[in-house]
Amino acid sequence: xxxxxxxxxxxxxxxxxxxxxxxxxxxxxxxxxxxxxxxxxxxxxxxxxxxxxxxxxxxxxxxxxxxxxxxxxxxxxxxxxxxxxxxxxxxxxxxxxxxxxxxxxxxxxxxxxxxxxxxxxxxxxxxxxxxxxxxxxxxxxxxxxxxxxxxxxxxxxxxxxxxxxxxxxxxxxxxxxxxxxxxxxxxxxxxxxxxxxxxxxxxxxxxxxxxxxxxxxxxxxxxxxxxxxxxxxxxxxxxxxxxxxxxxxxxxxxxxxxxxxxxxxxxxxxxxxxxxxxxxxx
Length: 282
What we know:
mainly alpha
């Protein structure tokens, strides 16, 4: 319900807060919009305004490995890594959420150790993982050491979200399922997972996006083959054309597509639930 005064008009504070929020959004997305616009510059375009022409020239330049680095290789590493991190984050956080519903010896200490990874400096943690692999005689790679470094970032976030999800889940649903003869695995598969599915999708989205753009923890643990964020960072040192803006536009579009798919899946699940409740009431 909208906030209004006794005369039916909104108070001046409403417009002040709306203006402040609009300024914040402009400050947040204004530089990004400039990058998106400049990425469509013509062949003579530069890194700043005024914009010279309009074309897809700099997007085509991304395919040229000599000008923009190993982008294809970086993407071929970042996407599988993000998917693996997403799956592991969902499975581990869901299992932890089920386990932490009941107190067990050392649960408080274990939770503190997991959450402590959030406040640990990312560079320091990445360096530590890289050094550990070198001391053990293992070669740091994007699918071993970088995977572990990114999980130290995604698991605490996923665990906190999963705790919030389980905090709103009533165990009476499981009890009802078992009263009807369901075995524990059946109750988990047919009752718990479907009810918590929107939250599980949210954890998966966090795991994918946090891994896809992770830089600090990955920089010192990825080895000789860069992931996409590190490749973009290296491009800023030697690429002086709008092709780097084109890359930013592409990666942002991928992120929005992933977010849109996740939100669409959640909306579809909620719509089906509402339709099912309406049919049962009818």
